[in-house]
Design goal:
Elements (H helix, E strand, L loop, with lengths): L1 H41 L5 H27 L4 H13 L7 H14 L1 H7 L5
Helix pairs in contact: 1-2, 1-4, 3-5
């Protein structure tokens, strides 16, 4: 029976690892979006102040999203972190660039009851 418990812990740790990889990827895409917007509009003939006014709202939203997706990397294995990560996984289904990988992770989280592992043990990840 111990082998099954160890196998389950390994599966949970692997799913959590790939979830964190997805979150880093999404955070990098958010930050890259700022650079693409800035350099894409740099040659548009806008003055510096206009360029900042156009890109600032998008940059603030993207920075906020990047920080939100990086929080689970540094969170301890606590119940709130499991629910937060699950919420981010479902929220990130809105992004088409990560959809195939994200959908598999959402299904894995539901199948393996990853959130319950956050409640039951503290040394999985």
């Amino acid at each position: 029976m111990a082998a099954n418990g160890d196998d389950f812990k390994q599966q949970v740790a692997r799913i959590i690892f790939w979830t964190r990889v997805l979150f880093v990827y999404i955070a990098l895409v958010c930050l890259a979006g700022i650079a693409v917007l800035w350099f894409g509009l740099a040659d548009s003939g806008l003055e510096q102040a206009e360029l900042i006014m156009v890109t600032a709202p998008t940059a603030l939203v993207n920075i906020g999203l990047a920080v939100a997706f990086l929080i689970p990397l540094f969170a301890q294995h606590k119940p709130w972190a499991g629910r937060y990560s699950q919420g981010l996984l479902h929220f990130s289904l809105l992004a088409c660039y990560a959809y195939p990988f994200n959908l598999l992770l959402v299904l894995a989280w539901r199948r393996h009851k990853i959130v319950e592992s956050y409640y039951n043990s503290t040394d999985v990840s």
